[in-house]
Amino acid sequence: xxxxxxxxxxxxxxxxxxxxxxxxxxxxxxxxxxxxxxxxxxxxxxxxxxxxxxxxxxxxxxxxxxxxxxxxxxxxxxxxxxxxxxxxxxxxxxxxxxxxxxxxxxxxxxxxxxxxxxxxxxxxxxxxxxxxxxxxxxxxxxxxxxxxxxxxxxxxxxxxxxxxxxxxxxxxxxxxxxxxxxxxxxxxxxxxxxxxxxxxxxxxxxxxxxxxxxxxxxxxxxxxxxxxxxxxxxxxxxxxxxxxxxxxxxxxxxxxxxxxxxxxxxxxxxxxxxxxxxxxxxxxxxxxxxxxxxxxxxxxxxxxxxxxxxxxxxxxxxxxxxxxxxxxxxxxxxxxxxxxxxxxxxxxxxxxxxx
Length: 355
What we know:
CATH architecture of the largest domain: 3-Layer(aba) Sandwich
CATH superfamily of the largest domain: Isopropylmalate Dehydrogenase
Oligomer: single chain
Structural class: alpha/beta
Order of helices and strands: EHHEHEEHEHHEEHHEHEHEHEEHH
CATH topology of the largest domain: Isopropylmalate Dehydrogenase
Shape: globular
Radius of gyration: 23 Å
CATH class of the largest domain: Alpha Beta
Strand order of the largest sheet: 3-4-2-1-5-12-11-6-7-10-8-9
Number of domains: 2
Helix content: 25-40%
Strand content: 15-25%
Largest sheet: 12 strands, mixed
């Protein structure tokens, strides 16, 4: 029996670069030595894209389910038998439909314990909406499916960036930003840094909402009324939390390098500096779930779909981050197990001695 991690991969949008970066990643020796790749889709879709991607040379095994996997090959779990009308370079209802089918099947197996972690290839929100998908993105879908609070956490060598509010219009952010919401996301970040990344006492930097972090209430009140009081409470409870920092100076001065985790108030406040510094090798991790899900930090890249130009670096990092997080969680669970009471040695039982 192989002890390699069973890594599920949903194929994303078949009209984008998802299958290309999957094929360029899973056939590498490093990936095959570290995990058992399980692609959720169909062999027909894989074959179509394999004819486009150059220098892909690996053996794959067709499967009806993930119940019995080949430990030394790329496994393809065939979710559908019908042919897919692949129209490279644009979102369609059909591409959205099959992205959903792949994702649903992979998540079902993840929650049933048939795979150990999941990497999701890029999807098109437009195509998903055409196909009737009612969630803004993967993160919101997974949170509801798994019944868990979650945090979008972007990972790279440069930083770990979380965002309090995710996929929503900017004008709605101040309306939903409460001390309770920020605390919830902060708690998830602290816990995931401890459990998933082995940082025992993480130092967190929290960004302000307004320009210049509100300038003592002169440019918005959220910092003084919500964010700063929360930081004070967190410090009193023993957490290492600093802020609120003005976002521009925080990144411009390089202050971000001092922190184990950074918490931004809204999507673009965190993602713009993250992608400016880490684009192409960053990873999106849905923290806070009982199950592990990562994805590359980019989208479907329709403009280069089918041209064999996609760089698989971010997908590779998503795969290895998922593997590392699985191992870290396993180690944490082992380290924090309830200690077993030592049985007294026979000699101690006989003479009543103790040490």
